Amino acid sequence: MKNPRIRFERDRTVWIASGKVELGQGINTALAQIAAEELDVAFERVRIVPPSTAHSPDEGYTSGSMSIQEGGKGIREACVQARAALLAHAAELLGAPVGELAVDDGTIKAKNGNSVTYWECAAEAGEVPPAAAGAKPSAPTKVVGKSAPRIDLPGKVAGKPAYVHDMALPGMLFARIVRPSRPFATLTSLPEGKPEGAILVRDGSFVGVLAEREELAIAAAAKLRAKAVWKETPVPEDFHGWLRDNVTQRSVLKEVKGAPPAGRSIKASYKKPFIAHASIGPSCAIARLKDGQLEVWTHSQGIFGLRHELSVVLGMKLEDIVVSHAEGAGCYGHNGADDVALDAALLARAANGRPVKLQWTREDEFAWEPYGPAMALDLEAQLDASGSIVSWKHELWSNGHTNRPGRSPKPSLIAARHLEKPFEFSPAIDPALPPEGAGRNAIPLYDFPDLQVVKHYVRETPRRASSLRALGAYGNVFAIESFMNELAAAAGTDPVEFRLKHLKDPRGRAVLEALKPDWQSRVKKENQGHGIGFARYKNIGAYCAVLAEVEAGEVLRVKRLVVAADVGLAINPDGAANQLEGGAIQATSWTLKEEGRVGAVSWEDYPILRFSEVPAVEVRLVKSDAPSLGAGEAAQGPTAAAIANALHDALGVRVRDLPLTPERIVKAME
Amino acid sequence: MTELEVNGQRRSVSAGPDTPLLYVLRNDLGLVGSRFGCGTGQCGACFVIVEGKALPSCDTPLWSVAGKKVTTVEGLAKGGELHPVQKALLAEQAAQCGYCISGIAVAAAAFLSSNKNPSEKEVRDALDRNLCRCGAHNRVVRAVLRAAKEMQA
After folding, report:
1. Average pLDDT in the A526-537 region?
2. HSE-CB of A145 using CA atoms within 13 angstroms
3. Which residues of A touch B90 (CB under 8 A)?
4. Cβ-Cβ contacts under 8 Å, A160 against chain B
5. Residue A335 Cα to chain centre, angstroms
6. Positions of E strands within A437-493
7. Interface test with B, best of A23, A150, A152, A156 (most B CBs within 10 A)
8. Residue closest to A487 by CA, chosen among A607, A377, A566, A382
9. 3-state class of B55 per DSSP?
10. Distance CA B12, CA B4 (A)
11. A18/chain B closest Cα distance in angstroms
12. Contact by Cβ (8 Å): B123, B85
């Protein structure tokens, strides 16, 4: 049987080629569950082949919480087809009709007791099964819907090699790059002479070093960096004002003309800063250029898009480049994985065929990873005499939310614009509806009779910007759900009831209802408060409502979060819960602490939530057999709004400018 | 040459004395479980136990551990059996990307060796030098409390 996606090995394992990559979200475990289910083999027998442009299906990017939907679908189809082909062949071998065969852990059994295994059949089975041969009878699932343990954790917990950072190839050189910590146009000067114990590589303003030992590369790069002079590019002090002044394109995302608005008008403006991915492991890649063939290993979300862009920048043919995925530290969107790959490839040109491992430093990562863009938002609504919203307007200003390689005609990788023969910089673009970028979740799920949603896209960017988990949904939902509370207060209505009053979608109502017992039994104490937030991610993804309980002392502390979600059929309920909980905790960190200032180089400059600050989190999955929906990006927006609303409940102060730091809270109280 | 004891074995290393221990472990001794995170001791991904205390190996020069006993995440297991903390981390599925988890396992093992019956708050405070970005904190805390119980049994 020749199925490019499935391989049966002698040790009775099944190898599945995935087009989606493991980002730390546990996707390989969920995909293995789908394969085990469809093939009728034990989950423990399934292995997922790390994707490579050399042998994997091109499923685009692993992003947008689409891996179960897209990747799962492809694997499911391949497995269904393989199972049918194997059964058709087994029917011949066993002399029994396909309809009378049963499969148990890869062993195909006939009624007369004869049997044959997948592994025995695989080589001889036909490529395409006869129509409808061996269609799997519907039965309760055995593997899907159960919380299978993560297949990668035993190795990681034991400290085994697991990441691209841990790969070692024979003859490998260690590399570091030399870049300043602020945006720059060109390198003005570099210290003269050869760095000690290292090879200097320079192409225009792109500079790096290669050494036999890692500590020598680190020392050489540090020395060069200390003395290099760069022509910096200016960065505006007030990003949000700057965005409003530099609009490239205005577009109306949705307009519903209702009755002429009558009633009380209420307005509010909100802000979201640049936010870093801030993965614990800085980006890392290995590249080898030998005999005109380039091999690259990196933790990219899109190996095919990266290969395309490498071919453009390096002037090589696509077929001369292989990009393979190797895991990195947690990926929450478009981080430095693609840029580090080009950097490594450029350095590999000076390595005489030897592999080069480039590790970005923490400083490189904070300075050069693409941040989730800053956003400014203006909301306006009219309330009628009965306290209902009769008109709603949402305007936002933002850079584009995607600058991924392969998505623009010009290269977007950092080093491309620093070369001796530079490529023009390709600014972030913003995808259209759905799923949108800056405008993601800008259209409220509520039913308003009069509605206008407007996006102001700003092409120029003072700092690199691209996709961060949830994209525009984090800022939009924070604004919408904060504003809903402001309106509920103006209408004198309970905020949960106020939302339900404007929401018809039954699944949306169900996740809000799931929080009602906690909401209604809340006890008001001094300086403590409760708040809720709600959204359906992308308006087509998972439903999520969050209840936050906060305590406002010297700093704002989130004590507890309850996350209610409908993700459709959860392939792995514990995996889905882990993603929702992790998303809510990360969003708590964004909301309380994070602001990406240009020039940040360390965890001191960019603090994130620590163990002692993390709230208790309870995840409630609403039971559903509806099609599966990704869980990793559903909680961020609702969490931000729930915290801001709880802060208001605690102190009576409305903070519309993220993050909710003590300074901003004090300023809002004045 | 610098002599030290890593995971119970005497090792002799030719790296320069100022080389951070992290690169000696990863590149000379093939022990890659200590991960690089920041290089300045701010994140905990590279923690190792030196004479009973959890330290960032990225910020620990080789000379300072000469003749000392170093335990890395690879050395937590005994006789082929994972440390109770590692077992508990698996039981609680306490990770997402797992990049920070080996440093956390080391910090937790060092902590539990001197605090047999910690409260949840004490566990959280003890792990405050370890950063996790995926949001697996609460699972990790449950795992450490579980391990404490199992170590007492």
Report:
1. 98
2. 12
3. 149, 153-154, 157
4. 32-33
5. 9
6. 451-458
7. A156
8. A382
9. strand
10. 7
11. 18
12. no
Per-residue confidence at A128, pLDDT binned at 50, 70, 90?
low
End-to-end CA distance of chain A: 73
Q: Do B135 and A610 touch (CB under 8 A)?
A: no
Cis peptide leading into A422, omega within 30 of 0?
no
- The overall average pLDDT reported for chain A is 94
| Contact pairs from chain A to chain B, CB under 8 Å | 175
Judge: B43–A282 Cβ closer than 8 Å, yes or no: no
Nearest to A158 among B77, B123, B131 (CB): B77
Residue reference for tokens 């407007």: A454
Distance, in angstroms, between B153 CA and closest chain A CA? 22
CA A519, A521, A526, A528 torsion-angle sign: negative
pLDDT given for residue A19 in this prediction: 86
Cβ burial of A661 (10 Å; 0-12, 13-18, 19+) is middle
Interface predicted TM-score of the whole assembly (ipTM), two decimals: 0.98
Question: Degrees (nearest 5) of the Cα angle A386, A389, A392?
Answer: 160
Question: Which pLDDT score is estimated for A407?
Answer: 73
Distance from the Cα of residue A159 to its chain's centroid: 25
Q: Find the mean pLDDT for residues A576-592.
A: 97
Would you state the pLDDT for residue A173?
98
* A222 Rama sector, left if φ>0, alpha if ψ -120 to 50, beta otherwise: alpha
